[in-house]
Amino acid sequence: MSDVTINFKDLGGSILKQMQNIQKQMTFAQMKALNEVAFKSRTNVISAYNSRFRSRNKTFPKTVRVDKATKEHLSATVSFPHDFFKLNDVGGEKRSGSGKSLAVPTSVGHGGNWESGQISTSRTPKGSVKKSMRPAELLRYHNTHPKKKKNNVANSHAFILDGKKGRFVARRKKENRKIMEFLYFLPKMGNVPARWDFEKIVEATSKRHLEKEFNRVLKWALEHPK
Q1: How many angstroms separate the Cα of 81 from the Cα of each of 78, 135, 194, 198?
Q2: The pTM is what?
Q3: Which residues are CB-contacts of 142 (< 8 A; sequence separation ≥ 6)?
Q4: Short-list 178, 146, 142, CA closest to 157
Q5: Confidence at residue 110, expressed as pLDDT on a 0 to 100 scale
Q6: Nearest CA to 55 among 35, 79, 28, 82?
Q7: Per-residue confidence (pLDDT) for residue 10, from 0 to 100
Q8: Which pLDDT score is estimated for 210?
Q9: What's the CA gap between 199 and 202, in Å, rounded?
């Protein structure tokens, strides 16, 4: 009786090479899937920003950054470099500094009517408030002439108005001093709602697409080995 044993002993090198090739394609698929989902997350984050905020500066949300994954570092990061905007993501209280107030552009027009305020028409093409209409600049005359009566000056200068509804930066309309223009509301504290959900959007996009994207890229990579 003759026995012939068949095994993979003599094919060890070939099997190892095949396993290495598969591992190489898996690493490639992981990297591509991570980057694809990271940029998809970025797109969703920007879309949410544009739908939830009234922003004249269209370049601002595009500063959302993606640090791409590599074969050596299988992790992609989506980040927003402006720390001051984090409050709009998580929500919370924004407080003024000691002895100061927040300056909130008001939508109150002249005469107490709720219409577009002066600040909405005093912005640069990028959306920032023009220097001449910022609180410090508006109150420059008021701060340097504390004893000057508001009605006895040639030009209509802004001043701080203490009213029943709070403090405002206001000024009398040049054409008619009886009409008051409200420019800024000056609260000590303001509640900022969570409106952006930056982190939740990225996490939801990853959960929905990462596995599917990995399987798609891996299938293609195995069919097109290099």
Answers
A1: 10, 26, 18, 12
A2: 0.64
A3: 157, 158, 159, 160
A4: 142
A5: 44
A6: 82
A7: 63
A8: 94
A9: 5
Block residue for tokens 């900022």: 192
Neighbouring residues of 217: CB distance < 8 A, sequence distance ≥ 6: 28, 29, 32, 33, 36
E-assigned strand segments in the chain: 65-67, 77-79, 92-95, 104-105, 159-163, 166-172, 180-185, 189-192
Lookup: tokens for 119: 């600040």
Contact residues for 218 (Cβ-Cβ < 8 A; gap 6+): 25, 26, 29
Backbone phi and psi for residue 171, each to the nearest 5 degrees, phi listed first: -155, 155
Q: Are 187 and 104 in contact (CB under 8 A)?
A: yes
Helix, strand or coil, per DSSP, at residue 65 = strand
Q: Which residue bears the tokens 């002439």?
A: 145
Mean pLDDT by 10 residues, the chain (226 residues): 63 70 88 95 90 76 90 91 74 76 67 48 71 81 64 66 80 74 81 81 94 92 80
Domain ranges in the chain are 9-91+195-223, 94-191
Q: How far is residue 182 CA from its own chain's centroid?
A: 28
Integer Rg of the chain from CA: 30
Asked if residues 159 and 142 have their Cβ atoms less than 8 Å apart, the reply is yes
